[in-house]
Amino acid sequence: MIATAVDTIQRVDQWLWFARVAKSRTLAQALIARGKVRINRNRLEKPSATVKPGDVLTLTLGPTVRVLEILAIGTRRGPASEAQLLYRDLAPPPSRAISGTRNPNEALAAQAVRLDGAGRPTKRERRQTDKLKGR
Question: Which alpha helices (DSSP H) does the chain contain, by range?
Answer without folding.
Answer: 5-8, 12-18, 25-33, 80-83, 104-111, 123-133
